[in-house]
Amino acid sequence: MSGCTGASTQPDGPEQSGPSGPRTARDRGGAGASCSEIHQLVRRVQRGYTGRGSPDVSLIPRAPNYIGTADMPAHSGPWDYLAEVPLVLYGPGHIRARGAVERRATMADLAPTQARLIGFRAWPHRDGRVLWDALTKHSPAPPRAVVTIVWDGGGDNALEEHPGSWPYLRRLSERGTSFQQMTIGSSPSVTPPVHTTLGTGAWPATHGIPALKVRTKDNRYVDPFEGLDPGRIRVGTLADLYDAAEDNRPVTAAFGAIDWHLGMIGQGSGWPGGDRDPVVLLKYLADTLSNEAIYTLPAIEDPAALSRYTNALDARDGELDLKWRGHDLEDETVRYASPAHVAYQQHLIERFITATDLGEDPVPDLLYVNFKMSDDAGHSWGMTSPETADALSAQDRALRRLVRTLNRTVGRKQWALMITADHGQMPYPHESGGWAIAGSELQADANAALDHTDNGVDLVEFVKSAGMYVRRDDLTPNGLALDDLARWAYGYRAEDNLRGGGRIPDSYDGDPGDRLFDAALAGRRLAAARCRP
User: Fold this and answer.
1) What's the gap between Cα 111 and its chain centre?
2) Which positions ≥6 away from 326 have C-beta within 8 Å?
3) How many other CB atoms are there within 10 angstroms of residue 133's CB atom?
């Protein structure tokens, strides 16, 4: 893992290497980011900018502030404590046993490294690079299976908050190669764009998936994978390109929870020359689904097993009361974020591996897996909660089971494994001292200050965690450019964001007159910042 997180923002990518300086667990307010730090934060935002689908004005709050609510912190932003994630590669015979290496890596590096592992020479040049430090030089044959695991919300700050919850991941990091300076590399630090970067080896600016929602040409704001449709991805994933190039002989498969995870696998038979790859999404009600127009859905459900895992979790405290840490296990949303659901998912993954014949012939196969429970536990009870520790522990046990399964089904020294996370977790404001910036108040204030037309249309339509969505056709009637909105937002202060009659929270580690943002971008261009990087 890459150590503690904090304000020191290290450059992403291959141009430099070497150990990072000391970092603290959480950023606080104060003077804000330095000029060099702003440069890196802006760079991550620019990599995530897709054009119309992204905010017109991207905002970089002064850490640890964020745009969102105090009771459910939004893990969206370019800061190290959200961007730094683990990356562990393990696979005897294919992955070098180097332990911790002080090399930079990003999420865009996974696809080209996987392509190299499986011997796919036709991989196009994109944003990522091959992580040669991890690969053996003279493997007699490629692995029969390359499996990629994402611990959703399992970034470095979450792991370091619960250091006793992942002993097996730590063991694999010591016996394989662990990149100590791994970041997701772009912003927003949310599931859809990061998983698509993993699958494509490209930044959102290239692959086109910007955030949780995307703005369409007809001005709608929709899920980028609406209808379980990955068609908005602008480029092929490794699975798309490799499967088609090999006449669909490989197994290219995915096991996730929600449509946002489809960015790892790609378009199935919707890609030219592709076929219906096996894809399973395990929902919170424990049912499975897929888009069977372009994927296949193996029959792997086993409700009796879920009952067994739920009953075993219930019994841990010595009472059979359908409670886990005081939460009702009959509530599907509770069970979904619990160790019982983790164990059930791992059980189904093992059935999935058998059903798809993963690794059964010399043609290398690809499997992508997301464990969502660590993220859901963090959203429900907070990053520092014992529930999040339990979810991480359960995922660590599942990882051990997966390695045993691969040894049994694929064969020892016949597979390689990559474990990472899509983002860290945002602490509650009362833990970090930050300000939860009310987006609706920011929107109202921006329109009151800048929208002087009487056309019944708001200039600023929405404020989301990454920034402002603007009616561009309303700029000229107001005599404005996007830069004007960005400069106005940069001057926005904590006291401005108070709703009528509100007061500064006692937990806020700052002053009422503090600027809430370190920088603002108009489109892809930096328009306002404390200093120009």
Assistant:
1) 15
2) none
3) 16
Residue 2 covered by a domain:
no
Calpha distance 78→533 (Å, rounded):
16
Residue 12 is assigned to a structural domain of this protein: no
Report the SS3 class of residue 84: strand
- The tokens describing 52, both together, are 């119309």
Residue 386 lies in a domain: yes
Asked if 387 and 517 sit in the same domain, the reply is no
Domain count, the chain: 2
Question: In this structure, are residues 148 and 6 in contact, taking their beta carbons and an 8 Å threshold?
Answer: no
Distance CA 374, CA 379 (A): 9
The answer to whether the beta carbons of residues 151 and 371 sit under 8 Å apart is yes
Its pTM stands at: 0.94
325: left (phi over 0), alpha (psi -120 to 50) or beta: left
Annotate 197-224 with DSSP letters as a single string.
HHHHSS-HHHH---SSSEE-TTS-EE-T
Q: What is the pLDDT of residues 147-184, one digit of tens each?
A: 999 999 999 999 999 999 999 999 999 999 999 999 99
Cα(3)–Cα(25) distance, integer angstroms? 9
Q: C-alpha distances in angstroms, 144 versus 34, 115, 185, 410, 504? A: 47, 13, 29, 7, 58
Span between the terminal Cα atoms of the chain, in Å: 29
The reply to whether 291 and 370 lie within a common domain is yes
Instruction: Please tell me whether residues 198 and 274 are part of one structural domain.
Output: yes
The CATH number of whichever domain residue 139 belongs to comes to: 3.40.720.10
Range of the domain at 137: 89-355+364-397+415-429
- pLDDT tens digits for range 468-503: 999 999 999 999 999 999 999 999 999 999 988 789
